[in-house]
């Protein structure tokens, strides 16, 4: 029941997109992990052929948590009565009925298409189809690059986190001793250049000597290796500092009020 003054929660996640959900290096062969992503409880596991399964964590039999289970013959085995599911969510075995028994149609788990790419495990969150779009990623990152990275939890909706990371006006104040030092409070532009996957933002901060900030259309053409921010819809961000010094963040939704940031520093 919604009480007076309370906001009714809607699922404000953007559907039919690829989302980073896990650091690929942390998912070892035979490992089973339970995570909450996009307001859903999911179980992830890695098969012996290195493929990754991702299905709903709540067993369709009696609701046990599959993430407490085991990997067996490239299936996930429920810890309660041993029912086994494959990566596509289909039930493979009901031990109590015997291996030759028919599987009732009601025994299946919601499943997600997974891919391992750029050091992350991704799922396609939305309507599953045979032909899915490519995982969108930054063109300046080679797939063979290595990553050093870590995770950070922010207690807010992922769109607010992204908004903060694209807000270039706060740097001289919130980060006055680090990335915003120098009291360069005049913000020229920002000049936003649309790309096929999102947009890039170019700025030029200056000391306030009484000049007027340049309007976006008065900004000079960006130079090839100029520092800028890149954004790819719906939740990938990059701070391009130099050709060899980059920071990437995936703002991964946990639920409406929590976001997990996967930060990565790609290098050759
Ligand atoms: S609850 Fe999963 S097998 Fe029974």
CATH topology of the largest domain: Rieske Iron-sulfur Protein
Report the helical percentage: under 10%
Proportion of β residues? 35-45%
User: What is the domain tally?
Assistant: 2
SSE order: EEEEEEEEEEEHHEEEEEE
> Biggest β-sheet, characterized?
7 strands, antiparallel
Low-pLDDT residue spans: none
For the largest sheet, list the strands in their spatial order.
Answer: 11-17-16-15-14-13-12
What hetero molecules are bound to the protein chains? FE2/S2 (inorganic) cluster
Gyration radius over CA: 23 Å
Query: DSSP helix count?
Result: 2
Global geometry: elongated
CATH architecture of the largest domain: 3-layer Sandwich
Mean pLDDT: 92
Distance between the termini: 53 Å
CATH class of the largest domain: Mainly Beta
The secondary-structure class comes to mainly beta
Name of the CATH superfamily of the largest domain:
Rieske [2Fe-2S] iron-sulphur domain
Number of strands: 17
